[in-house]
Write a structure and sequence with these properties.
Largest sheet: 7 strands, parallel
Low-confidence stretches: none
Distance between the termini: 38 Å
Bound molecules: nicotinamide-adenine-dinucleotide
Order of helices and strands: EHEEHEHHEHEEHEEHEEHEHHHH
Length: about 350
């Protein structure tokens, strides 16, 4: 495929915005349409500075099949990178309904539209972005999850992502669609919504506030820089196109970088040089998984993909980004970005 026309769902979110910026670096992408509903985690500024004529923003929901059909037909879309989601575990514990609606039913809409388009002589490729959380939790000495590990989600967010993964695989088998699933560990980097651990801690430190850590803080996650994840996602799209990966395959991405939450916060404190903010242990998250770790050997072998960004460098440049972009962060904490969205889109 020479000139690829892409639909990115959730392109105003954290990872989606990096996908869009990265795709624009390649001449082979002729059109990049970003479909985003601008929910609380979608910030218009995340793609607001793009002037490239190949880029187009469409405000709307993946749950709107009519809109999806219109975009795919009018823009002649070849590939969908599907990142739109409700993505925060804590929110799924408070209320699962939006997670079922977006993560499961929204994915169902995309799948049904792909089948309808394919019946109409299209051949849409789907890269479905999922998470290591679908595999459940590991004990300290367990081997990292690989693509054959059992699906065993343990929180409502992970359950809805697992359900959407199952839907994708069922559509590959039943309707012969060209879809692959990527499952990645915890991402960090610029533009992550400040409810997630790293930006939350950075913002608290910027305000000299205490740093709330769930339970004993010894929960382990495998951290990967968002740009490494995005390189992997794009490599999967190209590999599917070239037949290097087949429909129905799953590919894991991780950073080979397991850290406890406490280690992370200590490191940020050290890089920040902050002496005012103190760690404050708070009541643990309900059902909090102890450890995630990912084996990315398949991606390394098949795609020749490796996580390139070193943890300390990545963390330092993330910290710098939040310090240099206080307006972005302030517009979120003050709610100003919602006012802008409501004025322009609601
Ligand atoms: N952040 C991580 O560490 C991580 C790790 C592995 C996988 N993932 C997966 O990657 C994807 C993106 O995660 P993220 O961290 O960028 O999330 P995010 O919350 O930052 O962004 C989600 C985006 O989706 C949009 N959105 C939500 N509902 C929508 C709808 N109905 N229609 C259109 N747009 C909608 C939001 O406005 C937002 O821009 C998710 O599928 C998530 O499960 C995330």
């Amino acid at each position: 495929m020479n000139k690829i026309k892409v639909l990115v769902t959730g392109g105003c979110g954290f990872i989606g915005s990096h996908v869009i910026h990265k795709l624009l670096d390649y001449d082979s992408y002729k059109k990049i349409v970003n479909l985003d509903l601008l929910t609380y985690s979608g910030h218009p500024e995340n793609c607001g500075d793009i002037t490239d004529k190949r880029y187009k923003f469409v405000y709307g929901s993946i749950n709107n099949k009519g809109l999806l059909t219109k975009i795919i037909e009018e823009e002649d879309i070849d590939v969908i990178f599907h990142l739109a989601a409700e993505s925060h575990v804590d929110r799924s514990i408070d209320s699962i309904e939006p997670f079922i609606s977006t993560n499961i039913d929204g994915t169902r809409c995309i799948l049904e539209v792909i089948v309808e388009m394919n019946n109409n002589h299209k051949n849409i490729k789907l890269i479905h972005i999922s998470t290591d959380e679908v595999y459940g939790s590991l004990n300290k000495d367990d081997k990292p999850f690989n693509e054959n590990s059992q699906i065993s989600p343990r929180n409502p967010y992970a359950a809805t992502k697992a359900a959407s993964d199952h839907l994708v695989l069922s559509f590959v088998n039943t309707f012969n669609i060209d879809a692959v699933i990527t499952r990645c560990s915890n991402n960090y980097g610029p533009r992550q919504f400040p409810e997630k651990l790293i930006p939350l801690m950075i913002m608290k430190m910027m305000n000299d506030e205490n740093l709330p850590i769930y339970g004993d803080g010894k929960q382990i996650r495998d951290w990967i820089h968002v740009e490494d994840h995005v390189d992997g996602i794009i490599a999967v799209g190209e590999a599917l196109d070239k037949g290097i990966v087949s429909p129905g395959e799953v590919i894991n991405f991780g950073g080979d970088n397991e850290k406890t939450n406490l280690e992370i916060v200590d490191k940020i404190l050290q890089l920040f040089g902050n002496t005012e903010s103190k760690i404050e242990h708070i009541k643990d998250r309900l059902g909090h998984d102890r450890r995630y770790a990912i084996d990315s050997n398949k991606a390394k072998n098949i795609l020749r993909w490796y996580p390139k960004i070193k943890w300390e460098d990545g963390l330092r440049n993330t910290l710098k980004w939040y310090i240099d972009n206080t307006d972005w962060a302030k517009s979120i904490t003050s709610g100003e970005y919602r006012n802008w969205i409501n004025k322009h889109y609601n």
